[in-house]
Batch of 2 targets.
Target 1
Amino acid sequence: MDAGSLTWVLVSAAMVLFMTPGLAFFYGGMDRERNVLNMLMMNFYCVLIVPVLWMILGYSLAQGGSGNFIGNFDFLFLDGIGILDDNGGQLATIAFLGMFAAITPALISGAVADRMKFSAWAIFVPLWLLLVYVPVFKWVYGGWLGDRGSLDFAGGTAIHVNAGIAALAAVLVLGKRKGWPKEGQPPHSMPLVMIGTGILWFGWFGFNAGSALAANGQATQAFMNTFLAAAAAGLVWVVVEWKRDGHPTNLGAASGIVAGLVAITPAAGYVSGAAPLVIGGIAGLVCCYAVKLKSKFLFDDALDVVGVHFVGGLVGSLLIGFFANPEFFDGTFEEGIFYGGDAGLLLEQAIANLSAIVWSFAITFVIMVVLKKTIGVRVDEQVETTGLDFGLHGESAYH
Amino acid sequence: MKLITAIIKPFKLDDVKESLKAAGVQGMTVSEVRGFGRQGGHSETYRGAEYKIDFVPKVRFELVVEDGVVESVIAAIKAAASTGKIGDGKIWVTDVDRIVRIRTGEEGPDAI
Amino acid sequence: MKLITAIIKPFKLDDVKDALKAAGVQGLTVSEVRGFGRQGGHSETYRGAEYKIDFVPKVRFELVVEDGAVDPVIAAIKAAASTGKIGDGKIWITDIDRLIRIRTGEEGPDAI
């Protein structure tokens, strides 16, 4: 890897690490004040356990060998990965991908907020990483889904759809929060939500533009797309909400920004021109309504992981079928429908997402059921009503 | 001696304080509280879901005065805190059996 | 008229508010306070150092009611705030000499 690219990948990796605390603040602010530390800890736990597992066997199982479904054990403990032949490029890539592996299970924490036992979460995260994230990652990057021609630049299918549908499976086993949906709780700290949103947006430039794994034109376009899609989605969400509910809210802006970032993630290195505005705009509109699904179908996805990450990821991934523009990137991928292609790419996008959805939902459901039948997944009622911060962690957020 | 307690709209804090000072009150305690009366709170909408916020922010004044100034203090609070709109608040008066100034140990009206 | 003051566990705030509304109470004030009773606080450990938190968070309710409503209001608070565990709180009643509604100037029971 050349020095410029190596620099960019290392900087991007650090930016993606910063997204996990960003996500923690984003979720923590939306949570109630007696559970905010539990939310932060669920997120920070991911950056404790995942790097360790990633080094020991996660990376090897996710990228080793040429299997269609799962990697191999060639790189256990990063065996054989040196820094002399390629200037440390592979090691930088492993670090970069490790950050992705850390934030993906963290996304699920927003759904299970306010009621999941931390001990159950502590076991859920490594199991989910190895049984769900790693195989789906391999299918998409170097496995059968990627080989069929589906596109996922920075993790729309592998990360957002994957974690989003897992969040749904998790809450179906976990059950609803006490009192929901009759009693809801508004965000306890909107400033915390906005700080988290800012950190996420900043980090997302590393997430998307870093996924070019090079300092080149594709990285630059991905950077620009990340900029524009988030702005368009935030704008649309605020306008819709203003018209529908009467006020332009901070949470609407934050939610739209994140929905736009999620949607542009799979498309960032494949689309150009006005496409990020359209993809972001559609994601802002669709997600603004999708967050209402939980009240209609009564699944208690506390902080809207399904409505924002699953739906946003799916929207962005499918829109690649319309907007992919290989000529612009001098790329070898298929053209989208708006650039002279047929419906072939759209079909591959649908197949890839459907495959990830079925696997992720089923395995997550099984993991949660096993945890429920063994150590239990819910805090007791006393802890749920008095707060997880003191009940599980012995700390209070505000004195 | 009487304890006068008033619950008012928060934005009237400074007006009421100034008005009480002008009426000769030398000390008072305020705290941020929440409450509702006939106005019944308000609602906030987040991600399209409406949350009923029963308790709206209020400010509580507490001051101990001599019996003779109760009337003028009530008048001062009323004049300064009133907007004519629902939610202006209430004032109530309770008896104080004993009052002690901690520094000097003075008791009774001298300690006010 | 009486002033009813109750100190309760914070997580019982909504239960008590709903019980009081159901009992016909039209207005009340709450504040976040800290205190301890026989339970004597709790301890929290940060970086291995234990901190004794003597004052644990509590919620104070204040409401002014007519004499006849005192018993049902006490019953409502007791039923809603009780967990049977130490630290459930206290309720006390004081006499009110005078009550004024700021907006209209109404006095006495009409101002409740």
Note: The radius of gyration of chain A is 20 Å.
Target 2
Amino acid sequence: MIALLLAACAGPGADDTGTSTITAEVVPSANISTLATLVWSSPEAFAGVVRYGTDERTFDVPFDASATTHETLLLGVPAGTEVTWTVLDDAGAPQGTGTYTTGALPTELPSLTIAGGGHDQFMLTPLIGATTAAVILSPEGHIVWYHLDDRGLDVYRVRLASDGSGIVYNAASVSGDPAEDSALVHVAWDGVASTELAVPLLSHDFVELADGTLAAIGVKYGPGADGADVRGDRIVEIAPDGTQTDIWTSWDCFDPTVYEGDDIELGWTFANALDYVAETDSYRLGLRNFSSIVEVDRSGACGDVIGGDPSDYTFEGSRFRHQHQFHVYGDRLLVFDNDGAGGNASRAIEYALDPVAKTATQVWDYTPDPKVYSFVLGDAARLDDGDTFVAFSVAGQLDRVSPDGVVEWSVNTDVGYAFGFVTLVPALVP
Amino acid sequence: MRLSTLAALLVLSGCDASKDDTAALGEPGKLADVNNYAFTGALDVPSIVTASATNVSVCWDEVLHDLQCHAMDPTVDIENVGLVRFPNYSQEEVEVALSTNDLQQSAISGYVEYQPGSVGDGPSTCANLEDFSFFGTGIDVTEEYTEAGGTYMLLLTQGTTPGVGARMITFLEPRAAETITEVSIGDGCGLLAVDADLEAATRVPIPAAGPFTVDWSELTIDGQGNPIAVEDIDGLMIAFYAGETPASLETQLLDLELVATDLYTMPLTGATTADLAGATGASGAFTGFSGEGTWLLALRCSTCYNPAPIFLTVVEPT
């Protein structure tokens, strides 16, 4: 790892404000080449912000006047980049400034080909294939944080820990038999502290609720149409005290003698995406083999089903098939549709929902040219400016596309590297 | 079908300094584009015609040499067989992308793999396409292995990481009019032709007695003139070739590890500098330059399809 350039200097304007000059040192992370900590102190305590960043992006980290020594995590900058930091008092006067250069990324991570100007969200995503890792991409598409995982399982989802301490990901397997040693893994920002919550037979997705409860998709075996066991699904909640409770299984909503689903050799319902709806304290669960999205109350009661044979909604326009991640925005449903377009082409597709008439009317879709196929995983999300973020996960391609279908930004991996689901967040720390 | 692809020639500028004029050499240990060799590669991937939309048995027991014409044991060295489909690429376009290490995941619409020994009682050198799978998903050959499906490439690798450690590559070409359902992959010798120019590159001065620090932070292109990603560089080689000249070594580019008199290597993890004293070989750690012959310094990418070093230069001990 390249040694970072350390800087410590008095801030211009220090004498003007009457505030004592600071002493500072940039300490590079031993584990993450893009990460460093600014350790600084002043003879007298004062409040303000540490501003750091690059030509591309700056961050403000506030501090208070309760101490004269501070440690500020310099998080979110790309590799091999000169970073400028400045300590500002609460009047905006600089009390110290300096620069350092971040190190290079480890060779296990792929080169990313970036075209266009990005967007305004950080992207948390797994890398799978030639490398298994949890990474964070800057809004422009550069890797700014990473954690390699060598346990031999895959990672499908990465989220911010709700307490701002780092990230949480699921180490699991949906290839063949599920893993008994699957886990939800918390990694602190420094990349050192890591804790595991063992949850056997985890599957694609999980969410964290406001009270710290984690909810995850897991595999559940039960009787199929002919009485022999089939691979269904469950939602398991893990309370903050570690108690694990299956609050729902596939059999709570569906009868295998009525709904057989596609590709039974993969599983019966094959749940693959999970969202939590705070307004109704319920979940939305994607079922790949039913091509359905089902609402599930936290008590386990089943609500509306959108899509597939069990659908409570009728469709106007094209239907989605073998979908993965989806999002609901008001009366709109945005879905990553793996197979609905046919011909080994995946797409994002949007519907206007009428919950009274129970109709889903196609209003928009985006299929890249040339076609891109993500036979599993995939994500689609609406950005604040009306553009749509689309992750063709196993095709290693991320797109930002305008409402009229113009690709305004894209990221591609080298062959052998794929993305998992992509979680968009406006900031990395609260 | 024989196909050939030539990568673009790297045109080096400012390389007309005399090799004996040490004053014209650059900063000691500084590796720059002007120091890099020029490389062209011709990859001639064979294509095997088969029946379409049906199961096909593929054997690799005749692959006794890999793409670099290095001897191998197909029962031991082939640990993964991957079938890759490119829906929008011709065979020629795939070859170009392989040669230039410019193949993106989105060009692929399907990947399934087979690991010998994972089916049956032990290592085998044959597999049915129906036995291939990935992420728990198998291949429906009637729908996914068809003449209209695009270009299909079989990748035989050492190791099980997808796309890494290629020992042999061949195209499969399903045709509706064909009935061939059993095919065998041939030997790898003669498929990869390379042409290297070491002499034109400015030599890199390094003090004979140390320090041995090298710095490639300003390196921007590989031997083919393509932009490099520093994170791709995962290995360094410093090697001595007794009695050899840069010109004689140009013809042995794929055998540089095999023909070295003394060979020292070290893994790299995203660094842009290294101390050669950290490189090790059969005789222990590298301690300095000596002997009559040629010293070569290489930076490698083990995950790239193209086996040629990203950077290769002649060291001028000073």
Note: Residues 284 and 295 of chain A are 5 Å apart (CA to CA).
